Amino acid sequence: MLSYDVCECGAPLQRVERDTPTPKGTDVVLRVMAAGVCHSDLHIWDGYYDIGGGQKLKLQDRGVKLPLTMGHENVGEVIAVGPEAKGVSVGDVRLIHPWMGCGDCVVCRRGEENLCVKPCSVGIHRGGGFATHLVVPHPRYLFDIGSLSPERAAPLACSGVTAYGALKKVSDTVAEEPVVMIGAGGVGLMALALHKKMGGKGAIVVDIDPAKREAALKAGAAHVIDGAAKDVAEQVRAATGGGSWATIDFVGAGPTVKLGVDTAIKGGKVIVVGLFGGDVVIPTPFFPMKALTVQGSYVGSLNEIAELLDLVNRKGAPDVPVATRPLDQVNAALNDLRDGKIIGRVVVTP
Ligand SMILES: [Zn+2]
Ligand SMILES: [Zn+2]
């Protein structure tokens, strides 16, 4: 098998050849058909998250070891199954739920492996899809993609379930109140598409990039606002009729979280999804006085992946631009993503 690995933080991925693995126990070996390139790959590649004030949260201190094959949005065809792997056969095409935990704790047994304190995620803690093959430790992480193409299905594993998990946290108001979405990158556009399928009322999108605002309008946003405008907060208040009930921040920078908090109405929720980095000061009286909820949302659970695939198979694939590139161009794809040149999603195919 062939993979493109991070051997040194921030340095170009290296082409590595090794033996194709043989499955043991409940293992399943898949031939990668499509692997999405995600913003969080940039953080993993760099080896840290910016946590504000010049501080870095190092991924090496959080169990990430090099060399690493990144790629956590994968669809593959099953080519070999271990003797104890049940319910999956050679030839099956499956989406891989990448957010694996220890599989053993109370959280994992609830199906919320994405919140396990001992994560073992594909493309972060274990080998991912920027490769010709990958191994999944148990068939429970594999999901039938129905009528979707591998390229359309792959982004559902991160971008899709992240958007879905965030939207579910504001689902109590989604039919009556507009959702304010900050950031129309890959996950933001995915959220716009899913929001419509979930019966959501017109979304208001804030982005500093005119091309991304344009893409958001095409994807069905009811209204777009320039995030760099001096009066952006006033514009959000005006567009929401006084303040937002539900804001999802797909950027997660200090100023974007602050915008969410500043424009929340009484009882409003701000869901922080993006990992751009930074910090924010929130006056503590705002929490009780505004009955404010600020909640983080991290990818999604096994149940949420199943619900999302059900939604998409009933209502059609999210209309997010997807471009495919050959696997050997994965370095170029990552660099273009870093330079903000990608609208929607890039998927690499071996
Ligand atoms: Zn991702
Ligand atoms: Zn666990």
Task: Describe the fold and architecture.
This protein is an alpha/beta fold and 350 residues long. It has two domains: 2-158 and 300-349, Quinone Oxidoreductase, Chain A, domain 1, CATH 3.90.180.10; 161-296, NAD(P)-binding Rossmann-like Domain (Rossmann fold, 3-Layer(aba) Sandwich). The chain has eleven helices and 18 strands. Strands 3, 7, 8, 9, 10, 17 and 18 form a seven-stranded mixed β-sheet that branches. A six-stranded parallel β-sheet has the order 13-12-11-14-15-16, sandwiched between helices. A three-stranded antiparallel β-sheet has the order 2-1-6, with no helix packed on it. Helix 4 packs across helix 5 (186-197). The termini are close together. The mean pLDDT is 94. The structure holds zinc ion (2 copies). Residues 101-102, 104-105, 107-108, 116, 118 line the site of one zinc ion.
Could you name the key traits of this structure?
single chain, about 350 residues, alpha/beta, Quinone Oxidoreductase, Chain A, domain 1, Rossmann fold, 2 domains, seven-stranded mixed β-sheet, six-stranded parallel β-sheet, 11 helices, 18 strands, binds zinc ion
Which structural class do the helices and strands define? alpha/beta
Number-wise, the strands total 18
Rg from Cα: 20 Å
Any ligands, ions or cofactors bound here, and which? zinc ion
Write down the overall mean pLDDT.
94
The CATH homologous superfamily of the largest domain is named Medium-chain alcohol dehydrogenases, catalytic domain
Number of domains: 2
